[in-house]
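Reminder to self: tokens first, then the designed residues, so the page reads top to bottom the way the pipeline ran.
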């Protein structure tokens, strides 16, 4: 009987020459390693794994694979040793492989978000919950993806309120008592076990499991990785001891399984309270923004975070294409009037956490403008390269553009692609009609002379909004365009080619 991997392996991307493999095991395992084989030359190396943290069910391990791209395709296979014994995972797989892009090539990539269900009812009514992971696997086996970008809600922790006994008791208290109550040792232990089991259960699907082990990924969290609406609750509730205890445990598991520990070399500043990552990769700069760790109703990112982002854009991103991962769309429908109306109702706290989550919420408009202006400033340094924002969160697909016409000679553009969700279903027709009724998608102008225009686009081959489950592929065409293709559950084939 082989040793067992509890979560993983999880193949991480930290630069074009640095990959990581993370996995968890029972606490009784005292040593771990990864055996990597070049499938073409047969060369083999054994890489010791280090323990990077404890979880309720055991220990999390990390091994780093350093490899340089070559002038030929490179296929690496690997297996995991636990206590010197070859290990298999929950899908009874014990060997995995991945492709390293040819030196100088522009690799194919995939992007997805919303990898779960916000309620058991929605999961029960979904005929094939992981159909798009199966599509991703089929595509990958036919033409490998060099990177998988996962833009938020990799797990849905919303069931925490019913699954954790001590939280059920806490929720029965009056609101003022909830805010005063401390998180007991028993409550914290139950919360810890909840997140541990959540990752073990939700990432055990065979297709998902295989893709997370076979495509190097960059992940960034959103609210459901903590619980729905985190960062958009009133300060008195978000800062209370119980909310903070939940956040601390959610962050612990996020850092181990999604960031792959604070040893991740792509972290912009591992000593701060945010976990944005910058990954240079074959002509791309993948910049994953952490918009949850410091989020409140008044801010998305703190001052140190902004300084770090500004420095990264100034020092690192002076050529190539920028892929900015922002879990919540920067370009999307306007909820301002609805948010304002709810602010003056008795149900404000219950109804507006989702509205205040958006970049166009009143408390975040200034930071949104600041982000857009910083990105446009950087785009001017790279006049022959693209800037693309990759977003999710809203359970539909769509596209948008920010057009800067301030320069009389050359226009600068930032495109945005929304892909959501790879597992979570789209809003029902009735729900979508309700969203359309209380929002608008009129073009927006950020300057008085209307020289900076923000608007939504219509993908080719579909309606403006792709109201079905989907993920996106990014492929550099021989026509000089970056081709964005939405892979959908309903069989439609939307696409949009991005010029430089």
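Designed residues (500 positions):
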């Amino acid at each position: 009987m082989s040793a067992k991997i509890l979560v993983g392996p999880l193949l991480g991307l930290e630069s074009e020459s640095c990959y990581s493999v993370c996995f968890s095991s029972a606490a009784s395992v005292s040593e771990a390693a990864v055996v990597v084989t070049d499938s073409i030359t047969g060369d083999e190396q054994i890489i010791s794994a280090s323990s990077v943290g404890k979880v309720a069910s055991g220990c999390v391990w990390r091994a780093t694979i350093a490899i340089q791209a070559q002038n030929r395709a490179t296929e690496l296979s690997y297996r995991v040793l636990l206590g010197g014994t070859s290990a298999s995972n929950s899908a009874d797989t014990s060997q995995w492989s991945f492709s390293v892009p040819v030196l100088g090539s522009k690799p194919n990539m995939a992007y997805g978000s919303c990898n779960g269900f916000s309620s058991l009812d929605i999961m029960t009514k979904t005929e094939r919950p992981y159909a798009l992971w199966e599509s991703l696997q089929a595509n990958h086996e036919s033409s490998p993806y060099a990177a998988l970008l996962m833009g938020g809600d990799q797990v849905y922790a919303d069931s925490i309120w019913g699954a954790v006994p001590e939280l059920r008791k806490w929720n029965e208290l009056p609101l003022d008592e909830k805010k005063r109550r401390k998180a007991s040792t028993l409550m914290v232990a139950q919360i810890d076990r909840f997140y541990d089991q959540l990752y073990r259960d939700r990432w055990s699907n065979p297709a998902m499991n295989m893709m997370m082990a076979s495509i190097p990924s960059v992940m960034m969290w959103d609210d459901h990785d903590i619980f729905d609406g985190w960062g958009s609750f009133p300060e008195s509730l978000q800062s209370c001891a119980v909310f903070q205890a939940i956040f601390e445990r959610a962050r612990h598991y996020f850092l181990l399984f999604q960031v792959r520990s604070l040893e991740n070399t792509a972290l912009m500043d591992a000593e701060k309270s945010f976990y944005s990552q910058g990954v240079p990769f074959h002509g791309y700069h993948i910049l994953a923004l952490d918009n949850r760790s410091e989020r409140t109703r008044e801010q998305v990112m703190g001052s140190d975070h902004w300084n770090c982002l500004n420095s990264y854009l100034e020092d690192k991103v002076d050529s190539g294409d920028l892929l900015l991962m922002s879990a919540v769309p920067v370009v999307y429908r306007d909820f301002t009037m609805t948010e304002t109306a709810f602010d003056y109702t008795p149900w404000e706290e219950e109804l507006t956490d989702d509205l205040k989550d958006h970049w166009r919420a009143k408390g975040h408009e200034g930071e949104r403008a600041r982000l857009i202006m910083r990105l446009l400033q950087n785009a001017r340094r790279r006049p022959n390269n693209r800037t693309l924002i990759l977003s999710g969160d809203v359970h539909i697909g769509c596209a948008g553009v920010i057009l800067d016409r301030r320069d009389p000679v050359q226009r600068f553009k930032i495109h945005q692609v929304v892909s959501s969700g790879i597992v979570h279903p789209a809003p029902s027709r009735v729900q979508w009609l309700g969203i359309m009724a209380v929002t608008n998608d009129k073009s927006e102008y950020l300057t008085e002379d209307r020289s900076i225009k923000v608007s939504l686009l219509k993908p080719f081959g579909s309606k403006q909004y792709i109201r079905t489950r989907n993920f996106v592929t990014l492929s550099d065409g021989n026509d000089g365009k970056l081709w964005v293709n939405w892979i959908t559950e309903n069989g439609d084939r939307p696409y949009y080619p991005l010029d430089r």
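The first strand starts at residue 3 and ends at 4.
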